[in-house]
Design brief:
The structure holds 2 protein chains of 2 kinds. Chain A is an all-alpha fold. Chain A contains 13 helices and no strands. The longest helix of chain B is centred in the N-terminal third of the chain and has 43 residues. The chains are: A mainly alpha, B mainly alpha.
């Protein structure tokens, strides 16, 4: 079917190699109209994507200074005094690290339980739909829920605000809420990987007398490393791109505000900003309203996101050949 | 599957450890369920004062939403009403029209695009389209918002909003580039990738013998796709629709940037001007009012808006589950 090219009817005088019906020109007008529209949408999507990339490239590179990466933002109406976005970049790194540090192990564990144990089945089905609901919940709702829970006084060790009876806005809390939006992606990807593994792998391991837990840890999870990694990277992309949770749970202050100058913990318990909230701040909708800074930061953000995206593509495409030609992971010394 | 049968007991301690691992992992899974339940309860408890004060009129049309929100922020109740007085209709209406318009537009475009990708696109074009769809899905919403507010909105204002049009509604609302149309267009682009991907996957999974049978009967390729392939892929289209609706409903940042940010009750009776009136959906309102979470009445109202969104999201995910059941019949996993 796919080999039937779209070509005009055979030129007069030559033998008709193809039946006439297969050329578009013989179709009824209405079919040709839809066919044209299908082409238009396909090309239109490409144009939109290229336009987005082109705008970001031209404006982003035009407004980007290398010093932006090293200077902290400052509240100023003068373009040359409003600083760069070193703090937002650090903020993005911290929030992503905390979010993934929670979402990756929890997500892999839940996926392993769903795919390999799944007993009792009613609980497995409930958990499955709970994760789907989590994936469908708007991130603003997750943000206000997270804030409600994490502002409790006894969680004051996570944020300065909560310990003072105010809103619990901090890097810790933002990372915790962010882990909720990354979790469904990690679970889905890991589970998919486990489903695609051939059963003989499990059987071989059981035949050697290994328990199910050992099989998961030493055979199955090493075998689906690419699936896990792609889920984790997808989750990172989601975290990096989210603005609502940052604004509501991190506070979106212009600079990172460490508490009491305690080195690391103080920073994590304090408020701050990330690239997304910095872009919003500098867009016409925010208070900073300097579109040059917004474009520059958006360019950096887009580059990061597209890099992550290409990693996912490589992970999900490349190793698939390797996965079918199986390299059995080596058991270490026999464990008790 | 021989999984269970083949697990001969490898000694007592091993079996015990296995059981323990199962319990721990299961408990972790159950924790996610507890989390969802806790979220629903928390949001509703926090929202309750607003719902109980306003009753079902919470959803009703009323005076200006922005005035009501300002009254809560400044603790200066509107005359004749309590502090919690709130009529959300303009916000609900804004959510409904942006979501429905974007989803319908995306439905048409994504169906055509999916057909194009699976059936008609020449190999080189297909090789470009694949990363294009992934790129559109990966762009963060704040970047969509930035492009909308800095590129699309000024263009729409210059092209479609004449001074005469501005003057025609000057006593009701101020028109600018951030309006219903801008919001809908960008929202459509944002939800397209997911719908295209799901529909295209489903189309590719239709057995080729079915299409060949249709072609053998002399049906042309377009009709074959339309009458045979699309007919069996409708559950996938529905699944994509549900996911896209959930995404459109929950989109906050982009809409806060480009939809005009005034809780105006856009009026279809205004004719074409209606398309260029500002709106503000529910999620965008939460995003914009989040600074007021410390203020009692305002925070109850914000959580009430969140509760409405949460219930819609849960209903949508139930609908998604239902469409998936019918997908399984065709062996398609979405």
């Amino acid at each position: 079917m796919a080999s039937v090219g779209v070509s005009p009817g055979p030129p007069a005088g030559t033998l008709a190699v193809r039946p006439r019906r297969e050329s578009v020109s013989s179709w009824p007008l209405i079919d040709r109209f839809w066919f044209g529209l299908a082409w238009l949408t396909g090309v239109g999507l490409c144009v939109i994507a290229f336009a987005i990339v082109a705008i970001m490239l031209v404006k982003g590179i035009g407004y980007l200074n290398l010093s932006d990466f090293t200077t902290a933002p400052a509240a100023s109406l003068q373009q040359n005094q409003s600083g760069g976005f070193s703090d937002p970049i650090i903020g993005t790194l911290i929030v992503t690290a905390i979010g993934i540090a929670i979402a990756a192990p929890v997500g892999v564990a839940i996926a392993a339980w769903l795919a390999e144990y799944g007993r009792p089945s009613w609980l497995a089905r409930t958990v499955e739909s709970a994760i789907e609901m989590l994936a469908g919940t708007p991130s603003v709702v997750l943000a206000i829920f997270g804030l409600a829970v994490l502002s409790q006084g006894f969680l004051g060790f996570l944020s300065e605000g909560a310990s003072k009876g105010s809103l619990g806005e901090s890097f810790f809390n933002a990372g915790i809420v962010m882990s909720l939006i990354a979790l469904p992606l990690v679970v889905a990807s890991t589970r998919e990987g486990l489903f695609q593994l051939p059963d003989r792998l499990r059987e071989a391991s059981y035949a050697l007398g290994k328990t199910r837990a050992t099989t998961i840890r030493c055979v199955l999870l090493p075998a689906i490393r690419p699936s896990m990694a792609s889920g984790i990277v997808l989750g990172m992309g989601r975290i990096i791109g989210d603005t609502a949770i940052i604004t509501i749970v991190l506070g979106a202050t212009l600079r990172n505000e460490p508490v009491n100058n305690v080195p690391v913990i103080g920073l994590l318990r304090g408020t701050g900003s990330t690239l997304t909230s910095y872009i919003f701040y500098n867009s016409p909708a925010g208070e900073g309203n300097s579109h040059e800074k917004a474009y520059a930061a958006a360019f950096v953000l887009l580059v990061i996101v597209l890099l992550l995206n290409s990693i996912v593509t490589r992970l999900t495409r490349g190793p698939r050949e390797r996965r079918t030609a199986f390299r059995l992971p080596r058991f270490g010394a026999p464990r008790s | 599957m021989l999984r269970g049968a083949l697990t001969s007991r490898p000694g007592r301690s091993g079996a015990a450890r296995d059981r323990r691992a199962e319990l721990w992992l299961g408990a972790l899974g159950a924790a996610v369920f507890v989390l969802i339940a806790a979220m629903t309860v928390t949001v509703f408890v926090k929202a309750w004062p607003s719902f109980s004060y306003n009753g079902l009129s919470w959803f009703a049309p009323g005076a200006e939403v922005d005035q009501q929100l300002r009254a809560m922020r400044e603790s200066a109740p509107l005359s004749g009403h309590g502090l919690l007085y709130f009529r959300a209709w303009p916000l609900v209406w804004g959510t409904l029209i942006t979501t429905i318009a974007a989803v319908l537009l995306a439905l048409v475009i994504s169906t055509l695009a999916a057909i194009f990708i699976t059936e008609f696109a020449p190999a080189p074009v297909r090789r470009v389209l694949d990363p294009v769809i992934r790129l559109l899905a990966a762009v963060p919403s704040v970047i969509y918002g930035l492009i909308g507010i800095l590129v699309l909105a000024p263009w729409i204002e210059k092209t479609f909003i004449s001074n005469a049009r501005k003057h025609s509604v000057i006593f009701v609302v101020q028109l600018n580039g951030q309006n219903l149309t801008t919001a809908t267009v960008i929202l459509t682009v944002m939800i397209l990738p997911i719908m295209v991907a799901i529909t295209a996957n489903a189309l590719a999974a239709v057995p080729s013998s079915w299409r060949e049978g249709s072609a053998a009967l002399g049906v042309n390729r377009w009709r074959t796709i339309w009458r045979v392939s699309m007919r069996v892929t409708w559950p996938a289209v529905a699944a994509g629709l549900v996911l896209a609706t959930a995404r459109a409903l929950g989109e906050a940042v982009m809409l806060a940037m480009v939809s005009g940010s005034s809780a105006f009750d856009a009026n279809p009776a205004d004719g074409v001007t209606f398309l260029f009136e500002p709106v503000r959906p529910l999620a965008a309102t939460i995003f914009q009012e989040a600074e007021g979470l410390t203020i009692g009445p305002l925070s109850h109202t914000i959580y009430a808006i969140g509760a409405v969104l949460l219930v819609s999201a849960i209903l949508l995910s139930l609908a998604g589950w239902a469409t998936k059941q019918s997908l399984k019949r065709y062996g398609i996993r979405a």
